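Before drawing any conclusions, I needed to go through one protein's amino acid sequence and its backbone structure tokens, quoted below without any editing.
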Amino acid sequence: MSIRPERRPVAPKVVEEAVVAVTEPRALTHRIALLFSPARHWLLLMLALLPGFSLFATVLPEDRADIMYHRYDGGGVEVDGPSILVRKSVMDTVSLSANYYVDSISSASVDVVSTASPYTEERTESSLSMDYLHNKTLMSLALTKSDESDYLSETGSFSISHDMFGDLTTVSLGYSVGNDDISRNGDADFGDQIKRQNYRLSLSQILTRNTILGVGWETITDEGFLNNPYRSYRYLDPLAGDGYSYLPEVYPRTRTSNALALRLKYYLPYRAALSSEYRYFNDTWGIDANNFELAYTHPFREKWIFDIRYRYYTQEGADFYSDLFSRRAPQTYLARDKELSSFQSHTLGLAMSYEIKPGFLQFVDRGTLNLAYDYIYFDYDDFRDLTRGGVVGEEPFYSFSANVIKAYVSIWY
């Protein structure tokens, strides 16, 4: 049986999964405190960047269905699977939606190759939500369940948005609570839990006829078993053949993180748009992260829309992280998870959308065919690649690239 040093905890959708990390991947998602693996993090980011953060006035969501296929390939990790979302209004005040999401994961990452054997697994996620619109106030309730062989997550969330000042300003509040049950494959005696709470506040403001500003704040509190039950830290051991040995990681049982997001969108005269975003993240573990993003959207003729974006992310590592500790148990908390280290990433993204009007389906108003591609490069400052050999503590620093593809069909009815 494979022992997996990597795990991808599930976050209350969608953070992740969100502002953090965003890297990456603690999602879609504790997925994307989010810092589980780059794969999860980025797939989540593609779906949403900050829960409850809207640049548009409060309205009831349109009746719509989406069928998506996603794939992540990078660093020895492959993640792919489908997602189906259906949303339908009831009268003029209620909208119901259901989502089903599947991840098939195959991992032979640098962590796995160094300390264990490759593995495969599948995660399924299902969610139900309801939106209720009363005058200029929109209230939303959602329940999400995520299940894999050694991790079960259940999350409930509530949010409320209200338009004011002539619909030029929208204020949103949100709260989520989640309970996760953790087990370990091959160890029937191990079991633990995590409780997560998420608080969100956002404001969107129309500044001019062409400019929209958005500000979002998010606080997440985690309590319980917050580390990976399969992962180990590395320490110098003169008695070992390689000069070092491994022991299970030890994390604090509490974590509080805060994230601030600023977004600005400017609409150009020829229907195009420029977007910019800055996000700052910090937590009680000592992680500080900054994220900058620029994007341009361009329509072509009547049916095509093209997008291009560039994203730069940089992170300072956790206080208790080290690639190689000087001895066995030199401090209370010890971690070697590369997502808690110092690193940078660059992302170049391209997307296109084509509008269709299928006349043979009378109940369909319109639809779109969509394709998105991201190229991501990760460069770690203090996590070493043990697969390349070298003097202990002087191995080459790790870096890798990843490709992310998302293809989906949307129909409005």
The radius of gyration is 22 Å.
